[in-house]
C-alpha cells in the first residue's frame, strides 16, 4: 500500500484545513525525532573514537586500544596493521550504524504516520454528517447557502433531519473506506516488522545488561561516558518504538469517540446503524506485536529495562 497516494494524502474536501495542520505537525515530529536519534547514535560512535585516542595518548602506546573493542585474531601492535584494522573497524561501525538507524527511523516514521492518519480519520468522522450536508447543497445548486463547519456544529439539530439518505450513505462509505485503509496499513506494518521487533527487543535487553555492567566495572571516566551514552541511545530507540506503538493503539480506539461526536442526532436511522458498526470495529485495538508474543507499548519497554537490570544484578552477584 503506497502511503504517498490517496487516501493517505490530506484532503481539503474530506477534513478541511485540519488535515493539512495534522500533516505538517506529523512531518515536524518525524524530523525532530530523526535528528535526536541520529545525534545520540553518532555521539556514541565519536565517543568511542575519542576514547581510543585519549587512551592511546595516556598509555603512550599508539598501537594499543581500538575504538570499538579489541581484536585478538591479528597482531595490531605495529604499523600498518593497527591503522588498517582501526580504519576498517570505524568504517564498518559507521556503515552498520547508518543501516540500523535507517531501519529504525523508517519503522518509527511509519508509526508516526499511522498515528496521525488515525487522527485524520477521527476528524473525518466528526465531519461525516457535515460532508453529506455540503454535498447535498452542491447537488441541489445551493452551495452558496451551505454553512461552514463551525456554524453547522452549533445548530446541526435543525439541519440533520433534512439531509437525504443517499448523501449520508456516500459520506459514511468514504469515511469507512478511509478507516479500513489505515487499519490495513497497520496490519501491513505488523507483518513487516513484527519479527524484527522480537529480535531487536531481545538483543536490546542483552546489550543493555552488558553495558550497565561495563559502566560499573570500569574506572575510566571516558569508558563510563561511552557505556552510558550507548545505554541512552538504546533507551531512545526503545522509547521511540514503544511510545508511538502505544500512541497508535490509543488513537485507533479514539475513532469510536469521534464517531459518537459526529452530529448524528436526527439523521436517517440507517446512517446511525452504520455508525454503530464503525464504533464496534474501532474498539478492536490496532496493536503492533513483537513476534506475536508481546504487544509493543510502554509497558513492554518497562519490562525490558527491568529484565536487563535483573540480569545485571545477577551478573554482579556472581562476580
Automatic annotation (TrEMBL):
<dbReference type="GO" id="GO:0005886">
    <property type="term" value="C:plasma membrane"/>
</dbReference>
<protein>
    <recommendedName>
        <fullName>Odorant receptor</fullName>
    </recommendedName>
</protein>
<keyword id="KW-0807">Transducer</keyword>
<dbReference type="Pfam" id="PF02949">
    <property type="entry name" value="7tm_6"/>
</dbReference>
<keyword id="KW-1003">Cell membrane</keyword>
<feature type="transmembrane region" description="Helical">
    <location>
        <begin position="34"/>
        <end position="54"/>
    </location>
</feature>
<feature type="transmembrane region" description="Helical">
    <location>
        <begin position="193"/>
        <end position="213"/>
    </location>
</feature>
<feature type="transmembrane region" description="Helical">
    <location>
        <begin position="92"/>
        <end position="116"/>
    </location>
</feature>
<dbReference type="GO" id="GO:0004984">
    <property type="term" value="F:olfactory receptor activity"/>
</dbReference>
<keyword id="KW-0675">Receptor</keyword>
<feature type="transmembrane region" description="Helical">
    <location>
        <begin position="225"/>
        <end position="245"/>
    </location>
</feature>
<keyword id="KW-1133">Transmembrane helix</keyword>
<keyword id="KW-0472">Membrane</keyword>
<keyword id="KW-0552">Olfaction</keyword>
<dbReference type="GO" id="GO:0007165">
    <property type="term" value="P:signal transduction"/>
</dbReference>
<keyword id="KW-0716">Sensory transduction</keyword>
<dbReference type="GO" id="GO:0005549">
    <property type="term" value="F:odorant binding"/>
</dbReference>
<keyword id="KW-0812">Transmembrane</keyword>
<dbReference type="InterPro" id="IPR004117">
    <property type="entry name" value="7tm6_olfct_rcpt"/>
</dbReference>
Amino acid at each position: 500500500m503506497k502511503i504517498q497516494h490517496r487516501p493517505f494524502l490530506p484532503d481539503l474536501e474530506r477534513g478541511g484545513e485540519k488535515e493539512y495542520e495534522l500533516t505538517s505537525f506529523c512531518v515536524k515530529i518525524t524530523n525532530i525525532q530523526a535528528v535526536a536519534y541520529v545525534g545520540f547514535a553518532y555521539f556514541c560512535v565519536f565517543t568511542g573514537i575519542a576514547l581510543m585516542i585519549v587512551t592511546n595518548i595516556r598509555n603512550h602506546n599508539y598501537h594499543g586500544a581500538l575504538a570499538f573493542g579489541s581484536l585478538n585474531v591479528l597482531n595490531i601492535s605495529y604499523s600498518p596493521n593497527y591503522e588498517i584494522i582501526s580504519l576498517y573497524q570505524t568504517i564498518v561501525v559507521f556503515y552498520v550504524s547508518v543501516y540500523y538507524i535507517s531501519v529504525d527511523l523508517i519503522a518509527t516514521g511509519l508509526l508516526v504516520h499511522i498515528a496521525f492518519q488515525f487522527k485524520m480519520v477521527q476528524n473525518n468522522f466528526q465531519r461525516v454528517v457535515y460532508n453529506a450536508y455540503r454535498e447535498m447543497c452542491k447537488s441541489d445548486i445551493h452551495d452558496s447557502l451551505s454553512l461552514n463547519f463551525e456554524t453547522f456544529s452549533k445548530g446541526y439539530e435543525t439541519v440533520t433531519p433534512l439531509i437525504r439518505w443517499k448523501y449520508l450513505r456516500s459520506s459514511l462509505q468514504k469515511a469507512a473506506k478511509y478507516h479500513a485503509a489505515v487499519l490495513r496499513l497497520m496490519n501491513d506494518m505488523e507483518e513487516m516488522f513484527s519479527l524484527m521487533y522480537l529480535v531487536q527487543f531481545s538483543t536490546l535487553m542483552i546489550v543493555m545488561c552488558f553495558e550497565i555492567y561495563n559502566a560499573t566495572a570500569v574506572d575510566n571516566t571516558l569508558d563510563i561516558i561511552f557505556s552510558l551514552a550507548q545505554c541512552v541511545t538504546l533507551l531512545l530507540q526503545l522509547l521511540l518504538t514503544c511510545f508511538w506503538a502505544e500512541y497508535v493503539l490509543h488513537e485507533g480506539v479514539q475513532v469510536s469517540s469521534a464517531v459518537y461526536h459526529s452530529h448524528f442526532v436526527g439523521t436517517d436511522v440507517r446512517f446511525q446503524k452504520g455508525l454503530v458498526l464503525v464504533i464496534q470495529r474501532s474498539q478492536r485495538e490496532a496493536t503492533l506485536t513483537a513476534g506475536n508474543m508481546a504487544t509493543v507499548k510502554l509497558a513492554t519497554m518497562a519490562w525490558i529495562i527491568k529484565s536487563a537490570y535483573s540480569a545485571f544484578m545477577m551478573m554482579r552477584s556472581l562476580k
